[in-house]
Specification:
mainly beta, five-stranded mixed beta sheet
Length: 477
C-alpha cells in the first residue's frame, strides 16, 4: 500500500465530485512520487514486492526468502543458529554461496567457526521487509565473494505508516510479539522502528530459546537526494541438547532428554549501515558505509565417542565442545551511474569501488564432563581486507550486459594454531572449505583460519591460500 499524500487522502474520502474538486491545490503544483521495480538485469532476476511477501505468513526474515523461485530454506529448530539455505540447487549451507544484503548491510560473515559466509537472517523481522530481489548466478560485476549461486537483497520498510502491534502463539509453546511504528510523512517515507521478541519451549522442552531484536531506519529525501541510515540489533539464547546414547533410550529414558545443562548457547548482533544518493544532472552519485559486531557461542555434545573415534585418539567419555566466534566488520562503498545513449536512451554505465575490513577471533574448545578444558581444537585470529572496483555497461535495447570487476587487494593473516579442522571444513589438497567452488580471477574470502597440508596444521602468521589479485570479465546476452 503506497503512502498517500494529503491530496490523495482528500480524494479518497470525498463523497461527491464537488468535494473532489475542492481537494485540488489552487496554485501549487502537485508532486507525485512513484516507487517502481528497477529493470531486471537478466531473465533469472526476480523481485518479490510487498503484495507477494504478504500473501503468506512468515516467521522470520529468513522465512521471507522462501517466496523466491529456486530458494529452499530449512530450519534447524534453534532460534539463534542461521538457517540452511539452498539456491538453484547450490548447497549454500548458512550463506556460503549466496550473497545476502539487508539494505546496504552485508549479512555474510567473511569467516565463521561454523561455516564461511555465515548469515543469520533471523535478526530481520518479516514485517519490515518491503521487497526482496534475487540475482541468480555470478553474472553481476557488483557481486562479491559469496555470490557463487546468486545474490539476495532485502529492501527494508513498513508496508503502511502508523502503529503496528502483532502477537501470536503456536505449537511447542511458541509465542511472538511485534511492535512497530512508521511516521506518515512524505519526506520520511522510508523511516520506521520495530521491536520483536519471540520464544519457544521446543520439542520435549529441551530445544527452547528466546530471541529479541530491534530494527530501525531513518530514510527519505527529495528529488535530488535520497538517504537511509539503518540499525539492527539482536540477541538470542537457545538450547542445543545434542544426542543421546542408544542404550538409555532403549531402557526407557526420555528420548528428548539433554546430556548437559541448557541455556548455554548465545548469539548477539549489532549492525549499522547508511547510504546517500545524489542526482547530478543525468548521473547519480552514491556513497555508503556499514559496520557490524557479532558474537556467537555454540555448545554441542554428541554420543561421547564420535570425535575421538574419528580422530583415532583415546576415547574420552565426552564430546562436549564450546565454539566461539567474535567478529568485527567495517566497510565503504562508492558508485557513480550515468545515462548514455548507445543503443537506446535507457543505456547506462556504472562504476564503483568497495572496501571491507574484518577481524575474527575463533576458538573451538573440547571440554571434559565437568566443564573443564580438555583440548583447544581451534584458537585463531583472522584479519581480512578486501578492496575491489568494478565497471558495468548496460545496453537495454538489445539486452546485452557486460561488466568488469577487479579485486585490487584481498588478503588474510592467521595467528595461532589449529590442531584439527572442524567437521565439514577440511578438504585434502584443496585450499577451500567444503562445498566451495574456486573460480579463476576472484579473490576468495578468508576461510576458517589455516588449512591443513599433509596432515600438519598451518602455523601462526602464515598467509592464507586462495586470496590475491584478479580480474573477472562478465558478459551475457
Amino acid at each position: 500500500m503506497a503512502r498517500a499524500d494529503s491530496y490523495e487522502r482528500c480524494v479518497r474520502e470525498a463523497a461527491t465530485q464537488a468535494e473532489i474538486d475542492a481537494c485540488a491545490p489552487k496554485d501549487e503544483p502537485l508532486e507525485v512520487r512513484v516507487r517502481a521495480k528497477s529493470p531486471a538485469r537478466s531473465a533469472s532476476d526476480v523481485e518479490a514486492d510487498a503484495q507477494v511477501l504478504a500473501a503468506a505468513p512468515h516467521g522470520s526474515g529468513a522465512d521471507v526468502l522462501r517466496v523466491l523461485p529456486g530458494v529452499f530454506m530449512s530450519d534447524r529448530g534453534l532460534p539463534g543458529r542461521a538457517p540452511h539455505l539452498s539456491l538453484r540447487g547450490f548447497d549454500g549451507t548458512s550463506g556460503q554461496d549466496v550473497e545476502i544484503f539487508a539494505g546496504n548491510i552485508p549479512m555474510n560473515q567473511v569467516s565463521h567457526i561454523r561455516a564461511p559466509g555465515y548469515a543469520d537472517m533471523r535478526l530481520i523481522m518479516p514485517e519490515v521487509v518491503r521487497s526482496v530481489r534475487i540475482a541468480s548466478g555470478p553474472h553481476d560485476p557488483r557481486q562479491g565473494d559469496f555470490g557463487v549461486a546468486g545474490s539476495l537483497r532485502m529492501d527494508l520498510g513498513l508496508e503502511a505508516p502508523g502503529f503496528w502491534l502483532k502477537g501470536g502463539v503456536g505449537s511447542f509453546g511458541t509465542r511472538r510479539i511485534l511492535i512497530a511504528f512508521a511516521p506518515e510523512h512524505d519526506e520520511m517515507m522510508d523511516t520506521f522502528a520495530a521491536f520483536e521478541t519471540d520464544a519457544t519451549d521446543g520439542p520435549g522442552g529441551v530445544r527452547g530459546g528466546e530471541r529479541s531484536s530491534f530494527v530501525g531506519q531513518l530514510g527519505g529525501g527529495s528529488n535530488q537526494v535520497q538517504f537511509r541510515a539503518t540499525v539492527a540489533i539482536g540477541s538470542a539464547r537457545f538450547d542445543f541438547p545434542g544426542y543421546l546414547p542408544q542404550g538409555p533410550v532403549e531402557r526407557g529414558a526420555a528420548p528428548y532428554a539433554a546430556q548437559r545443562p541448557l541455556g548455554r548457547d548465545r548469539t548477539s548482533q549489532a549492525l549499522v549501515g547508511s547510504d546517500v544518493l545524489w542526482s547530478l544532472g543525468e548521473g547519480t552519485m552514491g556513497i555508503g558505509g556499514f559496520a557490524g559486531k557479532t558474537k556467537t557461542t555454540f555448545h554441542q555434545n554428541l554420543t561421547g565417542y564420535a570425535l575421538d573415534q574419528l580422530a583415532g585418539e583415546p576415547i574420552v567419555r565426552s564430546d562436549d565442545s564450546e565454539m566461539v566466534n567474535d567478529a568485527s566488520t567495517f566497510g565503504l562503498t562508492v558508485l557513480y551511474r550515468h545515462g548514455v545513449e548507445i543503443t537506446s536512451k535507457r543505456d547506462s554505465i556504472e562504476m564503483g569501488a568497495y572496501a571491507r575490513v574484518d577481524t575474527v577471533d575463533q576458538t573451538d574448545t573440547r571440554l571434559f564432563e565437568d566443564g573443564t578444558k580438555n583440548a583447544a581444537l581451534v584458537d585463531a585470529t583472522i584479519d581480512a581486507t578486501n578492496v575491489a572496483a568494478y565497471a558495468d555497461l548496460s545496453l537495454r535495447a538489445r539486452a546485452h550486459r557486460a561488466g568488469l570487476r577487479r579485486v585490487e587487494q584481498g588478503h588474510g593473516r592467521h595467528r595461532g594454531q589449529r590442531r584439527c579442522a572442524p567437521r565439514g571444513e577440511l578438504r585434502r589438497g584443496v585450499p577451500f572449505p567444503a562445498g566451495a567452488r574456486p573460480r579463476r580471477g576472484r579473490a576468495r574470502a578468508v576461510h576458517q583460519g589455516a588449512q591443513r597440508r599433509g596432515g600438519r596444521p598451518a602455523q601462526g602468521g602464515q598467509d592464507l591460500p586462495g586470496l590475491g589479485r584478479g580480474v573477472r570479465l562478465v558478459a551475457r546476452q
